[in-house]
Design goal:
Number of helices: 3
Largest sheet: 6 strands, antiparallel, barrel
CATH architecture of the largest domain: 2-Layer Sandwich
Distance between the termini: 28 Å
Order of helices and strands: EEEEEEEEEEHEEHEHEEEEE
CATH superfamily of the largest domain: Threonyl-trna Synthetase, Chain A, domain 2
Number of strands: 18
CATH topology of the largest domain: Threonyl-tRNA Synthetase, Chain A, domain 2
Shape: elongated
Radius of gyration: 20 Å
CATH class of the largest domain: Alpha Beta
Oligomer: single chain
Number of domains: 2
Length: 295
C-alpha cells in the first residue's frame, strides 16, 4: 500500500482503567514479596501518565521509594508505562540524592504496584522513603505514543469500512499488528482503505481523553468497542477520543493530535485461523511531523 500521511490511583484506592482496544490477556508480572514502605489501607503506585492527556508528554518526575524487591524499585508514583494492553514498557533511569543513575530496563505490574526492574548488577544506594528522580527514554515513549494513536485510527477506519472490530493489537519498534474478528471482505481493497485513512489524517484531528462513569459508558458505548469486555472493577472508564472518528477505552499513552503520527504504511490484510484477519502497519518516518498539529 502507498504511504499514508491500556490503574488510576485515587482516594487511596486503585481504580483500573481499560485497555479494551488491544485484547491480549493482561500482563502478569513475576511475583515479588514486597517490603511494606508505609502502614496504610493499601499499597498502590499512582500511574501519573493516566491523569490527563498532557501527562503523557511529561518526561521526568519525582517519587518516593516504597519497596526494594531484588533488582528493582517500587515507587509511590510513576510516569513509566508498565508493559500491557499491547504497548511495551517504557525505559529510562532513576537517580537518588547522590545523582548516580540506575538504568530502568523493564517495567511491569505486580498487583496494584509498578515494579521498575534495573539493569542486572545494579547496586542501588536507596532506602525506603528516599526521593528519586525518574527520566523516561523519550524517543522510545514518543514512538509508542505515535504507534498507539495510529493503531486506534487504523482500527476505527477498518471498522467503518468493513464492520470488523479489533480483537488484538500489539506494537513496538516502529511496527504494529492488528487482528480483527472475521473474514476480510473482498470489496475492501488496500486502495479504498488507504483513501479512508488519508481522509482522516488531513487535516490533523485532536485526540482527547475523557473519564466516564461505568454507567455512562455502558449506556452509550462506542460502536467499535465491546468485543473485549471491560473488567468488572473498571470505573471510571478512561476513553481516548479522536475527533469525529473514534472513541475507545484505553489505558495507554497517546498523542494530542493525529498530525504527530507522521506517515505510516499498512500491509495487505492476511487471513488467520479462527476466523480472523491480521493487518500490519509501520511508521515510515523516524521523526514525527510534530509541527503538523491540530489547528
Amino acid at each position: 500500500m502507498a504511504a499514508l500521511g491500556k490503574n488510576l490511583a485515587s482516594d487511596g484506592a486503585q481504580r483500573t482503567t481499560a485497555r479494551a482496544c488491544a485484547s491480549h490477556p493482561p500482563f502478569v508480572a513475576k511475583p515479588y514479596v514486597l517490603r511494606r514502605a508505609w502502614r496504610g489501607d493499601s499499597s498502590v503506585t499512582e500511574l501519573a501518565y493516566l491523569s490527563s492527556a498532557p501527562a503523557a508528554y511529561e518526561r521526568a518526575f519525582t517519587a518516593k521509594v516504597v519497596a526494594l524487591p531484588p533488582g528493582a524499585v517500587v515507587l509511590d508514583r510513576t510516569l513509566f508505562y508498565p508493559a500491557g494492553g499491547g504497548q511495551p514498557a517504557d525505559r529510562g533511569a532513576l537517580s537518588g540524592s547522590d545523582g548516580a543513575k540506575l538504568d530502568v530496563v523493564d517495567v511491569v505490574k505486580s498487583g496494584a504496584v509498578v515494579v521498575h526492574r534495573l539493569r542486572r548488577g545494579s547496586r542501588p544506594a536507596l532506602a525506603l522513603g528516599d526521593e528519586v528522580r525518574g527520566e523516561l527514554d523519550w524517543e522510545r515513549r514518543y514512538g509508542h505514543m505515535r504507534l498507539h494513536t495510529a493503531q486506534h485510527l487504523l482500527s476505527a477506519v477498518i471498522y467503518r469500512r468493513t464492520g470488523l472490530k479489533t480483537r488484538q493489537a500489539t506494537f513496538g519498534g516502529g511496527t504494529g499488528t492488528i487482528v480483527v474478528e472475521g473474514t476480510w471482505p473482498n470489496d475492501a481493497t488496500s486502495e479504498t482503505l488507504g483513501e479512508a485513512l488519508q481522509a482522516c489524517l488531513e487535516p490533523p484531528r485532536g485526540v482527547k481523553l475523557r473519564f466516564l462513569s461505568r454507567a455512562e459508558w455502558t449506556a452509550n458505548p462506542s460502536a467499535r468497542s465491546g468485543l473485549v469486555p471491560l473488567p468488572p472493577m473498571v470505573d471510571p472508564v478512561r476513553v481516548i477520543e479522536i475527533a469525529d472518528i473514534d472513541a475507545c477505552p484505553c489505558g495507554g499513552t497517546h498523542l494530542a493530535s493525529t498530525g504527530e503520527v507522521g506517515e505510516f504504511s499498512v500491509e495487505p490484510p492476511a487471513a488467520q485461523a479462527a476466523d480472523a484477519t491480521r493487518i500490519g502497519f509501520s511508521l515510515r518516518t523516524a521523526v514525527a511531523h510534530s509541527a503538523r498539529v491540530t489547528p
